[in-house]
Amino acid sequence: MPVDLVRAVEERYLKSDLPEFGSGDSVRVHVKIVEGSRERTQVFEGVVMRLRHGGLNKTFTVRRVTHGIGVERTFLLHSPRVERVEITRRGKVRRAQLYYLRGLSGKAARIKERRDRMPTAAAAPRRAAAGAAPAASAGGEGGAEA
What we know:
The protein has two helices and five strands; from the N terminus they run H-E-E-E-E-E-H. The chain has 146 residues and is of the alpha+beta class. It has a five-stranded antiparallel β-sheet with strand order 4-3-2-1-5, with no helix packed on it. The protein is globular and about 65 Å long.
């Protein structure tokens, strides 16, 4: 019963408008920064290295390299300081934690882009065009074959 009570209290603070992202994805995190009496939004862009915990305490770590120096920053996903998270690129990785990126630099640190399959309605014209092209060239070209 106490667990249900905690979950009920936490539900009030969970954000519902967050996109689904995972390790390897490139994201742009908009963070509220308070400087004295002023408040502004700062953007931190990089690759998601890991996702941890769950529920209200869910955190994610973003890594970016600027001027040859790697900077990692961990954000609370449901924090009021995190305004929004934009996904700029989906990464194709086979690990949940990408700590190996710390030892890589330059082109070696790149992550391949994950290309999700296209909807079948949009792919149908391509398949039809691809199927017609080999059939047209199979008829021979000017009698070169004997």
